[in-house]
Design goal:
It is a single chain. The chain is of the alpha/beta class. It has 4 domains: about 230 residues, Rossmann fold, CATH 3.40.50; about 170 residues, Rossmann fold (3-Layer(aba) Sandwich); about 110 residues, no CATH class; about 60 residues. The chain is built from 29 helices and 19 strands. The strands form 4 sheets. A 7-stranded parallel β-sheet has the order 3-4-2-5-6-1-7. It is elongated. The N and C termini lie far apart (about 185 Å).
Length: about 775
């Protein structure tokens, strides 16, 4: 059956027409994928010797376009060597001089790696750049934004001091992240949107700083959360080669790239470096004179602490040197720090006072001078500080101010192949602004407080330095330094006092005053000022030494004491030891403090009120009056019901108002009772004449002599007059005087009438005179 069908099919006539045949065609790639494959094939064939421009490197057209628009055409040595190795996916340790272009050396491979992987926003985080400084992270972010403008990757700047909520909501959309260690770890711990599973590249800029003790715990926690399969690149001008650090990062056969390792000097060749040996008290005047002589140049002046920068900036602004002054230090708000950084970059002539946060990686265009007012911590810090000038094969100058006790730093610099020449400053050209600074501090207490803080912070920074051969806090002349800052009296350095007490060292003082007792005249005082450096032996010193500390209150520094012999019994060493043993130690822990409080049985929310007799009246909690409040108190439910609490307060408020009214009424009642008792007491004290015995007799000297008016009286009449009451006496007296006057007017002759009237009118008061006048008028009528 099957054979017949096959024969029939073969014998059928062929039909003319088109027959569709399906064949396996070759897979066509899109143009971009084909271009990426061609670029990746050229990675192994890169010859560093023939690379003169970025166009000679196998880079994408988008990257080349961005570099050209930014003005980058010729790669530096570190960029050539790094890009060749980074494109092939190898781990790199990159070290080069400051200003040699290390930022582009890792940004270009990041863009190319993600471009070749055709990375999108949906793929999440692809590259992570960690840097220790916020300003450096901002600078890298701006550089990435400029050269990667034509790419479609999303980038994020994750640094402290910015809006955390804004960063949190966009964390899953970032392909490239530039961050500082602290803020990155915070997102790792708190943000569920952070995901680094697909991460391809990890870059540590200023790697030696990231991996030192300051960031050790943070970096260990970050590295533990990152995927092990990744490409890692480390860059710094002072690159770490510690096996421990490299093991922490799990580097696999890292390639060490150091184009300047065999060069003559560690610093750029165009940098002229010099140092000056000066006293601590002369630093402010040297800096001020330097600024006044370089008004048309761009200068960065480094200090050891933030408080020093703040004070010098504020006081120099008041002195008005004639050039723009800026200050960049860690305690400023982040937005303010960015604004200062951008402002200084734009200026052609300005002075920037800064701490070491401006020393690493930051690029300030056209900086002419770098002045190190305080000695750097080590030679690496020196390299980074002076690296802010002489960048990209340009020229620059640096000046280092060293005290005589810090000359050991010169040997450290020589070991790192750093050439520094000594120069001398003409003291006649120094302009000391101390007088003006003292006047400003006298006017402004806030500025004075800032100066005191700067003084203490400098001493503390010297004490905390690791290299004790260079930094000796005991060698500081604190009195003269305080005076150079404008302070009349040097502030107390408490940590130094505690250190001296612990070690048994006494601070060096300029003057010691010794007082000798003369046997013939014991009240005679002889003061001898002996310098500590004069080399006077103990035998030559007087018998009884008396030390005057530097913070003595005496204005003239001379001690005036009248001495006399006194028998003073000093405690023995055994008694002192017993006293110290018997002393109770203060509780150190919080638990001990809490137990001590519990033993005292202190009742919270309890106040003591004293009555009028001075006796204490204890007032404790007020019992709840309303039923609603009592019911609310007895409930065992957790939390607080706000609405119910409001109702309870309203109900209790009614009782509180009534209680207040009762208290006011009781107070008024008590006042009335006291007043009534006082009146009763006064009435009991009055004598039989109705007057108080304590009152003085009234002054009757103003009354006229009654003998002149009424004539002389008999003794009996006078005695009876004295015995009468005062009120009756006055009434009778006036009646008698009126009657006498009327009688005299009627009986007297006409001529004598006027004369008599004058005499009477002079002896009468106003009311009596008015009545007399009325009577005269009536008599005329």
């Amino acid at each position: 059956m099957s054979s017949k069908n096959e024969d029939n099919i073969k014998n059928k006539p062929k039909v003319k027409g088109k027959v569709k045949v399906f064949k396996n065609k070759k897979k066509f790639l899109d143009p971009e994928s084909a271009l990426i494959e061609k670029l990746q094939e050229k990675y192994e064939d890169i010859d560093v010797g023939t690379v003169n421009t970025f166009a000679n490197l196998p880079l994408s057209s988008k990257t080349l376009k961005g570099l050209k628009e930014c003005g980058y055409t010729k790669p530096t040595e570190i960029q050539k060597e790094t890009i060749k190795l980074a494109l092939t996916g190898k781990d790199i340790l990159g070290a080069a001089q400051t200003g040699s272009g290390k930022t582009l050396a890792f940004l270009i491979p990041i863009l190319e790696r993600l471009y070749c992987k055709q990375w999108t926003r949906l793929d999440g985080l692809g590259a992570l750049v960690i840097t220790p400084l916020r300003e450096l992270a901002y600078q890298i972010f701006e550089e990435l934004r400029r050269i990667g403008e034509h790419h479609e990757f999303s980038a994020g700047l994750i640094i402290g001091g910015k809006d955390l909520k804004f960063e949190r909501n966009r964390m899953d959309q970032c392909n490239i992240m530039i961050c500082t260690p602290g803020r990155l770890l915070q997102h790792m711990d708190e943000n569920p949107l952070f995901n680094c599973v697909n991460m391809e590249i990890l870059v540590l800029d200023e790697a030696d700083k990231c991996l030192d003790m300051g960031f050790e715990q943070t970096m260990n926690a970050i590295i533990a959360n990152l995927p092990e399969k990744r490409q890692t690149m480390l860059f710094s001008a002072t690159q770490t080669k510690s096996v421990r650090d490299l093991a922490r990062l799990s580097l696999k056969e890292p390639q060490y790239v150091s184009v300047h390792e065999h060069s003559e000097y560690s610093t750029p060749t165009g940098l002229q470096q010099s140092y000056v040996v000066c006293e601590l008290k002369d630093k402010v005047s040297i800096i001020w004179s330097f600024i006044k002589n370089h008004l048309k140049q761009k200068i960065i002046i480094f200090f050891a602490s933030c408080k020093e920068v703040k004070y010098v900036y504020e006081v120099f602004c008041k002195l008005r040197p004639g050039v723009s002054l800026l200050a960049l230090y860690g305690t400023l708000h982040q937005l303010r720090r960015m604004d200062i950084y951008e402002n200084f970059c734009k200026k052609t002539s300005a002075v920037l006072f800064a701490t070491d946060i401006a020393a690493r990686g930051l690029h300030f265009p056209e900086v002419h001078w770098v002045v190190q007012a305080d000695c750097p911590e080590d030679s690496a810090t020196y390299i980074h500080r002076v690296g802010r000038t002489a960048r990209y094969n340009r020229g620059g100058e640096s000046l280092l101010l060293l005290m005589p006790s810090e000359l050991q730093m010169l040997e450290n610099l020589e070991e790192r192949k750093i050439p520094v020449e000594k120069i001398e400053i003409n003291p006649l050209k120094l302009n000391n602004p101390v007088r003006k600074m003292e006047a400003f501090l006298a006017k402004d207490p806030t500025l004075k407080d800032t100066a005191q803080r700067a003084f203490v912070s400098y001493a503390k920074s010297i004490f905390l330095m690791k290299d004790k051969k260079v930094f000796n806090v005991q060698a500081l002349d604190t009195d003269s330094f305080a005076h150079s800052l404008g302070l009349a009296i040097p502030p107390r350095i408490r940590f130094l006092q505690r250190l001296n007490a612990r070690t048994g060292n006494t601070p060096k003082t300029k003057k010691h005053i010794y007082i000798d007792d003369d046997e013939d005249n014991k009240e005679k005082e002889i003061a001898k000022a002996v310098s500590t450096d004069s080399g006077v032996s103990d035998e030559e010193k007087p018998h009884v030494p008396f030390h005057v500390p530097d913070d003595s209150d005496s204005d003239d520094g001379v001690l005036r004491v009248k001495r006399k012999d006194h028998d003073i019994e000093l405690p023995t060493d055994f008694e002192l030891e017993e006293n110290t043993k018997n002393r109770k130690k203060k509780p150190v822990t919080k638990a001990a403090v809490a137990k001590k409080l519990l033993k005292k049985k202190i009742v919270p929310n309890k106040k003591i009120v004293f009555d009028d007799d001075g006796e204490a009246v204890t007032v404790g909690f007020k019992d709840k009056q309303s039923e609603l409040a009592q019911q609310y108190e007895n409930e065992n439910e957790g939390g607080i019901d706000i609405e119910k609490a409001k109702l309870v307060l309203k109900e209790e408020d009614k009782f509180d108002k009534q209680l207040f009214k009762d208290k006011v009424k009781a107070k008024h009642k008590e006042e009335k009772r006291k007043l009534k008792a006082q009146r009763k007491q006064e009435e009991d004290e009055k004598d039989e004449f109705g007057e108080s015995s304590s009152d003085n007799e009234p002054d009757l000297s103003w009354l006229p002599d009654p003998d002149k008016i009424y004539g002389e009286k008999d003794e009996d009449e006078e005695e009876s007059f004295i015995k009468t009451n005062d009120s009756d006496h006055k009434a009778k007296k006036t009646k008698k005087r009126k009657f006498k006057a009327e009688k005299l007017i009627k009986e007297a002759p006409v001529k004598k009438k006027k004369q008599r009237l004058k005499e009477i009118s002079t002896s009468l008061n106003v009311n009596e005179a008015e009545e007399l006048a009325m009577m005269l008028l009536k008599s005329k009528q």
